[in-house]
Amino acid sequence: MDRIKLITLVVFLYGLIASTLIVNAEDPYLFYEWNVSYGTLSPLGVPQQVILINGEFPGPRINGTSNNNVVVNVFNNLDEPLLFTWNGIQQRKNSWQEGLLGTNCPIAPGTNYTYHFQVKDQIGSYYYYPSTALHRAAGGYGPLTVVSRDLIPVPFDAPEADYSILAGDWYSKGHVALKKQLDSGSGLGRPNGVLINGKQGKTDGSDEPMFTMIPGKTYRYRVCNVGMKNSLNFRFQGHTMKLVEIEGSHTVQNVYDSLDVHLGQCMSVLVTADKEPKDYYFVVSTRFTKEVLTTTATIGYTTGKGPASPELPPAPVGWAWSLNQFRSFRWNLTASAARPNPQGSYHYGQINITRTIKIVNSAGEADGKLRYAVNGASHVDPETPLKLAEYFGAADKVFKYNIIQDEPDAAVTEKNHPITLAPNVVNATFRNFVEIIFENHEKSVQSWHLAGYSFFAVAIEPGRWTPEKRKNYNLLDAISRSTIQVYPKSWAAIMLTLDNAGMWNLRSVLLERQYLGQQLYFSVLSPNFSLRDEYNIPDTDILCGIVKDMPLPKPYTI
């Protein structure tokens, strides 16, 4: 064998071995075991039933790295069925792990179920929460963070510490009483307070520091609004903050005195301990409410002496300020996210739109009870999860596709128009590039979350949307995210590629509205029924409803 042939053979064998190692090498695993139970706590000073995970409220932090496999074994010690959803985790090819009543059968009391998902090509700040009944009103939520792999550059220096803040409004009534209210046809009314990591601050100097900072060091705070009804504003007493990330996207690093975070949204800021060493307050207050609810958490300098000043920094007023702040958020085009290529290498503004869907929220009644609707239809979860019915070929026995129109009739979207009660499933074409318009004709701020994807939030404006409004879109550096707010009498536009096969929920993050029907599902099916596009149903998946005793369909193959 001559030398050239030998070298060629060695190179071939080396490549074969290397490719085999890559194929067989799995990304690292993170294992968690959760015992979910009730406990009695007094977050607002009144004893009430709260959902604990391993005895904790909020629950434990899931802290992973891009592409990690996350395995969570959930033991349901409640007296009701239970599911958890992972707000912002895209579950690529894997809506089996989404943890909603449209995708999964719930975990029965006294049993367990193991979630297994990969945080594929994601970084950022997220959270999880129980999606069944009104369990979110009892807690059960916790932080979920995903950091970049070591080889991927991050556009800021490593902070001294990385803190999670879950802030949200809270009711002093228990979740059972609140659910009865909604089931009887009434609304939830105004929340009674605001919590920061499950606690309400006293603002009298008696609270122990929730966070500590070493003078001269910089800290990352990941702030999520896990509440039920209200947008929030947060600020650090005496300190500015640098915005660096929103829901998995690195941002242009602008400096702010305060930031609005709407329901379901998460963002990261950097704060430097460069002031007089003493205690300071982290302040959170409700936005766009007649009565402003405020709470605090104490931040202590490690060498500090002296309490925080009782004079709290004021919150902004009105939603015009909030809209202008939204417009200041920009995608960092040169920074890498989960992959080494820069975020700006994806030119979403140059892709042709193949479908426009207008989503209009409305309030009304059905059977004499309060309901909320999308384009005139109020979603109802059937006994058989939508995803299972579709996978087993039994969709026609459970729901009808496309009961709403892409362009709803004006009358259907007005207040008190008759509302249709039914599972709301929109048939969508795999890999289409779509534009979704959220039109809010009501007087309250809306917040929408889309599971399975991130989208480009290209515009928010007052009034009604028309095609001419596209000239105002940000087609260069809009933030890629999964949650978007819509101000009163306003609209918002998002753009995305439907490249993740599965059954994906689009929902109001306002708990009352979501529970009473302001949500729908996108059915995104791959025409190839291939493992390249979607995973098979897990062997351990819980079956219920009409598919419980049906034979499994033929599995997908490559």
From TrEMBL:
Keywords per UniProt: Glycoprotein
Keyword Kinase listed: no
SUPFAM superfamilies: Cupredoxins (SSF49503)
Location of the Plastocyanin-like domain: 36-149, 162-301, 386-527
Domain of life, source organism: Eukaryota
Family named by the database record: Belongs to the multicopper oxidase family.
PANTHER family: L-ASCORBATE OXIDASE HOMOLOG (PTHR11709:SF510), MULTI-COPPER OXIDASE (PTHR11709)
Protein name (Swiss-Prot/TrEMBL): L-ascorbate oxidase homolog
Organism: Cinchona calisaya
Lineage summary: Eukaryota, Viridiplantae, Streptophyta, Embryophyta, Tracheophyta
